[in-house]
């Protein structure tokens, strides 16, 4: 078959006569109009922060005391010894913070309150303790007698230190009640305050040991404080937090919580005094093995029991939402147990695009929803309904993201 020659007698063109080229895609018909969406996608709501933040005035006190503490350490211990003490003190602090994080994984506390709790222990409690000690020395004078040393370690130090540390826990209870839901929260806040206090106190002990005995004394002091007893202050102040956590669970007012707070501090002072007395008056190693180690084991078992109770409470509250159609029974089982959460995260990782972040958000918001309903039931949070509305919307959005094609 022959083709007619193209213009000018050359090869024929492959383009249709009305198209500029073979690859052109000219408009042949009017396109359909693209409709506008009825509404723009709503932004995901954020849980209100009121009642979950540290007050500005308390942060101002911490800044003021920090300046004084830095001046004290540089003047009394020098920059080199202070730096060595701080580096060494960071080691037990890291271990303690990891342990507290494990306790706090079920319903993590707001980050700003975690920072405030540690800062209060490291700055506020230490600064106030030094101020009270200086005032008592000015009023009663200083004596280097053995009796004075025993009184200072067994009576004065436990009372003053637990009072200043407990004050920080009470401030959090009073101004951030919406983030203080029960005994586990109280233990976490008390432990964080105690960890901060131990950090600054360890800087002083390690620096003095370095100045007085060099590397040998520093190693011994680090072993005694950083290895054998990093959780001492954590346990003491956690008792105060536990008492306030029980008060929070019952929905008592700030004024009525003073009684449980004082009782908690009495327990913390007693344990602190026994600890210090065992180092001065008795067989330290014998008391350490027969008293301190069992107390620490009991503390761990108590935390585990409280975590299980928190899990049961989450199941009960989410079960009420499931009865109303917000969750399935399988979702409640997944959200209310550690094993279920692990399985849910593993399932989310296997989805297209790895939807682990969506599952983590679903777990966090659902746990917060259970806590909000508990606050509403106790009647201590008039804003619990707002939290419920926000968290229901967030959990619905997270579920949609998880099951999106």
Helix fraction? over 70%
Mean pLDDT: 87
How many domains would you count in the coordinates?
2
Q: In percent terms, what proportion of residues is strand? A: under 5%
Shape: elongated
Biggest sheet descriptor: none
The oligomeric state is: single chain
Q: Which regions are unreliable across 5 or more consecutive residues at pLDDT < 50?
A: none
Order of helices and strands: HHHHHHHHHHHH
Beta strand count: 0
Could you tell me how far the N terminus lies from the C terminus, measured between alpha carbons in angstroms?
Answer: 53 Å
Number of helices: 12
Q: Which structural category do the helix and sheet elements fall into?
A: mainly alpha
Write the layout of secondary structure elements.
Elements: H1 56-76, H2 79-103, H3 111-140, H4 146-175, H5 183-228, H6 232-250, H7 258-280, H8 284-323, H9 329-335, H10 338-349, H11 356-378, H12 384-403
Helix pairs in contact: 1-3, 2-5, 3-4, 3-5, 4-5, 4-6, 4-7, 5-6, 6-7, 7-8, 8-9, 8-11, 10-11, 11-12
Task: Give a written overview of the molecule.
This protein folds into 2 domains: 56-282, no CATH class; 314-403, no CATH class. With 405 residues, it is an all-alpha fold. Helix content is 73%, strand content 0%. The longest helix is centred in the middle third of the chain and has 46 residues, at 183-228. It is elongated, with a radius of gyration of 31 Å. Helix 4 (146-175) packs antiparallel against helix 5 (183-228) and helix 4 (146-175) runs parallel beside helix 6 (232-250).
What labels would you give this structure?
405 residues, 12 helices, mainly alpha
């Amino acid at each position: 078959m022959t083709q007619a020659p193209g213009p000018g007698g050359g090869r024929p063109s492959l383009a249709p006569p009305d198209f500029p080229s073979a690859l052109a895609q000219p408009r042949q018909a009017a396109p359909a109009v693209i409709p506008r969406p009825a509404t723009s996608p709503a932004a995901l709501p954020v849980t209100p922060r009121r009642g979950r933040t540290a007050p500005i005035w308390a942060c101002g006190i911490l800044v003021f005391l920090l300046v004084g503490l830095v001046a004290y350490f540089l003047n009394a211990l020098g920059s080199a010894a202070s730096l060595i003490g701080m580096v060494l003190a960071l080691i037990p602090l890291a271990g303690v913070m990891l342990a507290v994080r494990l306790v706090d994984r079920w319903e993590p506390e707001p980050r700003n309150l975690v920072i405030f709790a540690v800062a209060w222990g490291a700055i506020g409690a230490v600064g106030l303790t030094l101020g009270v000690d200086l005032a008592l020395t000015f009023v009663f004078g200083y004596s280097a007698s053995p009796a004075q040393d025993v009184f200072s370690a067994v009576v004065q130090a436990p009372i003053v230190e637990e009072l200043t540390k407990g004050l920080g826990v009470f401030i959090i209870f009073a101004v951030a009640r919406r983030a203080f839901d029960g005994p586990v929260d109280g233990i976490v806040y008390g432990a964080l305050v105690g960890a901060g206090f131990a950090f600054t106190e360890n800087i002083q002990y390690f620096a003095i040991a370095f100045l007085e005995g060099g590397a040998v004394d520093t190693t011994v002091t680090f072993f005694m404080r950083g290895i054998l007893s990093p959780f001492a202050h954590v346990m003491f102040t956690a008792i105060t937090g536990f008492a306030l956590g029980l008060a929070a669970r019952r929905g008592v007012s700030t004024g009525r919580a003073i009684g449980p707070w004082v009782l908690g501090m009495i327990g913390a002072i007693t344990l602190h005094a026994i600890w210090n007395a065992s180092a001065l008056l008795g067989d330290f190693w014998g008391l350490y093995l027969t008293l301190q180690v069992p107390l620490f084991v009991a503390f761990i078992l108590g935390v585990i029991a409280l975590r299980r109770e928190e899990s049961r409470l989450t199941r009960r509250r989410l079960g009420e939402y499931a009865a109303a159609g917000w969750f399935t029974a399988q979702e409640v089982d997944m959200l209310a147990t550690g094993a279920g959460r692990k399985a849910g995260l593993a399932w989310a990782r296997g989805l297209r695009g790895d939807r682990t972040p969506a599952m983590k958000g679903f777990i966090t918001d659902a746990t917060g929803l259970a806590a909000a309903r508990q606050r509403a039931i106790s009647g201590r949070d008039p804003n619990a309904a707002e939290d419920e509305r926000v968290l229901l919307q967030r959990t619905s959005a997270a579920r949609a993201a998880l099951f999106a094609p």
